[in-house]
Amino acid sequence: MTQHPQTAPGDVGRTYDTFAEAGTTNALGGNIHVGYWADGTGSGIPVDEATDRLTDLVADRLAPEHGTHLLDVGCGNGVPALRIAASRGVRVTGVTVSAQQVREASARARDHRVGGRTAFLLADAVDLPFEDASFDGAWAIESLLHIGDRTAALAELHRVVRPGGRLVVADLCLRRPFTGVDRELLDGMLGMYEIASISTSEEHRTHLARSGWRLGELTDIGEQVRPSYGHAAAAFREIAASPDAPAAERLTEAAELMTTFGEHPDTGYALITAHRT
């Protein structure tokens, strides 16, 4: 597995803050994750609706009962947590390694009708400030890829979720290990976005098994999310081209990497459901 060994929680937080300050938060409609187009064309529905659909796929797999308490690992700006809290009638605690995201998510919650059922904290997924079995379920959307010790993070989630609870992971995956020129592309992605590693499906399975989770389903929805890379890259380029754009050179480089990675046929996307044993 290709890894970016220098990735640390503080570095990840600063990277998200840098991109947010450059104005990229709305590149995918307000969410900081990919969208889902059932036909894989990237047309028919706007990107903000597509990213909400990805959130809904996660919620569907969690299938939480009304009033239960869920953990959002890598909560970003709080949009998914608030959506799931509203649509499923649950409480959500979100954690992130970005203090700026905690402030943004908390401010958004204050203006949201279900904001009182959400809380956002600064915390590292491998050392969560919660008692054992504190949550009825958990999800992680494009956050575990920033963590060097994936098994340790999943074990920590196993600790704080009650027996019988569910974990849903939505994350990038590789359909085969990247080598040669492809490895250079992958290394560029890891460095640009402070990604510790991108796992293959088999590696995802291994991390879950080693941390005590029982795999229920692992589906590659790479073709349905692939248009997201083009949408995000176009938004990055538009921001970079604006007068006095902050980090314009970095945004342009990020857009090129995103375009090439998104077009690669072995770039997949794993949607995983696991159960707490």
Structural write-up:
The chain has 277 residues and is an alpha/beta fold. 43% of the residues lie in helices and 20% in strands. It is built from ten helices and seven strands. The chain has helices spanning 9-21, 47-62, 79-88, 99-110, 150-160, 180-192, 201-210, 222-225, 227-241, 248-263, and strands at residues 69-73, 91-96, 118-122, 135-141, 161-174, 213-220, 267-276. It has a seven-stranded mixed sheet with strand order 3-2-1-4-5-7-6, with helices on both faces. Helix 5 links the parallel strand 4 (135-141) and strand 5 (161-174). Helix 5 (150-160) packs across helix 7, helix 6 packs across helix 10 (248-263) and helix 9 runs antiparallel to helix 10 (248-263). It starts with 8 loop residues before the first helix and ends with a strand.
Please give a quick description of this structure:
By secondary structure, the protein is an alpha/beta fold. The protein is built from ten helices and seven strands. Mean pLDDT is 91; it is low at 1-5.
The geometry reads as globular
Strand line-up across the major sheet: 3-2-1-4-5-7-6
Indicate the mean pLDDT: 91
How widely separated are the two ends? Answer: 27 Å
Describe the main β-sheet briefly: 7 strands, mixed
Low-confidence stretches: 1-5
Proportion of residues in β-strands: 15-25%
Q: H/E series, N to C?
A: HHEHEHEEHEHHEHHHE
| Approximate helicity band | 40-55%
Instruction: Count helical runs.
Output: 10
Based on CA atoms alone, the radius of gyration comes out at 17 Å
Number of strands: 7
Structural class by secondary-structure content: alpha/beta
